[in-house]
Write a structure and sequence with these properties.
The protein has six helices and two strands. It has 126 residues and is mostly helical. The chain has a two-stranded antiparallel ribbon with strand order 1-2.
Length: 126
């Protein structure tokens, strides 16, 4: 049986990936995500990284019963909450049309991050 491993990127590599991803999501889903410019996207990616490191573990601990009851799906809502908090901290240059859009973008970002991590871990093993 083959074990799947994912590459752990450094903080700054993750910032670059998230910046590009946020800009792509803003271009693809213009009705759901607004980013004023690239500097706002970079700021949002840095704040998202900080919130993922500091706030997300606390939210996951608080929501553990709901996460267990939903078989882990509530984790996607937590990712949406962290993105929504990022938009609140960044301000008017980075915003979602609704909380539903924040959850949707969080789901897409999670899938893309998983694909990127998987791709680079395959290249490291060869």
């Amino acid at each position: 049986m083959k074990t799947v491993t994912f590459k752990n990127f450094s903080f700054w590599q993750r910032i670059i990936i998230n910046t590009v991803m946020l800009l792509a999501m803003a271009g693809l889903f213009r009705n759901g995500l607004y980013i004023r410019n690239i500097w706002t996207a970079i700021l949002a990616a840095v704040i998202l990284g900080i919130l993922n490191a500091l706030v997300k573990p606390f939210l996951q601990l608080l929501a553990l019963p709901l996460t267990i009851l939903s078989f882990g799906l509530f984790g996607l809502v937590i990712n949406g909450i962290v993105l929504w908090l990022t938009a609140w901290v960044v301000g008017d240059g980075f915003r979602f049309a609704s909380f539903g859009w924040a959850i949707f973008i969080a789901i897409v970002m999670s899938v893309v991050n998983m694909i990127i991590s998987s791709y680079f871990s395959k290249n490291d093993n060869q």
